[in-house]
Amino acid sequence: MNFNAFLQNFHFIRPLWLLALPVLWGIVVWLARQRARGEDWSDVIDAELLPALQLDGGSEGGQSARPWPWLTLAWTLAVLALAGPSWQQDSAQAYRAPAAWVLVLDLSPSMDATDLSPNRVTRARYALDDILSAARDARVGMVAFSDEPYTVTPLTQDVATVRALMPSLAPEMMPTAGDHLAPALTQAQQLLSASGARDKRIVVVTDGFDDPAAALRTAAALKAQGIAISVVGAGTPGGAPLSGANGSFALGANGQTQLTKLKVDQLQQLASSGGGQYVDIAHVTSLVKSLQSTSERPGDAIAAQGVEVAHWRDAGAYLLPILLLLVALLTRRRWL
Questions:
Q1: What's the pLDDT tens digit per position in 119-163?
Q2: Domain locations in the chain?
């Protein structure tokens, strides 16, 4: 590196330490004055007797050597080392969080129910947005399902892209009606299997599903593979009328309005089989805290292939040999 490049790159990594220099220099001046005042005995001892009573410090004129310039230099070097002088960069392996999450959103016709304001699917999107806020460095993918599952986004760290796609997710966009969760769990597992992550999680937001036996069996199999399944219940136990194809309320076989209710027991059983937790959509913050704590466990980071980060090399250690020599010099008898 030439001199011009050195001047352009030179800086201090921790420059706030430089604020200590004026304080330390002031202390040195104060100590020097206090020592000089303490050694002045001319006011109390006769001038003819004073030379005979003073100890010989080995310097000319019988005066002891003064450590103040050396003490100033030592403190200055110490502060400069702490400030971290730097002018070169090093490259280091980048690491990423090991967490990988797949969000599974129910887009069956029952998610249009209005027992949650304005409706279940809108509140489900709000809950997913809260979960995305907890992702940080975790990779996140999304699967939507009704009769069949569809991958909305593969695993990505671009949370903004996932958020941008969520407003368009609604039951009306699905080509066929239905409520089959097991295929959606299988598709989420396929996304996670290629991630290489250690912490693999699936978060299902639903009001219930029509294939409980298959879904619970799939959840248990995923738990055995180390994939935890948490569930967010969207809806109320009291339910709401189910909308029909023409916009009116759907009618049952007896001609009465058909209600769609939140299947709390079914969803709790799914979370238990999947080794995760069940929360009502109003308490999704507790799930968010749990996801944050698991994604921030120390010692689990894995190397990001082909990615390196640059950092400035701290050259403060190069000043330590000189500083140690000065400290050894300052320990001379009668200096400190």
A1: 999 999 999 999 998 887 789 999 999 999 999 999 998 999 999
A2: 3-88+313-330, 95-243+258-306
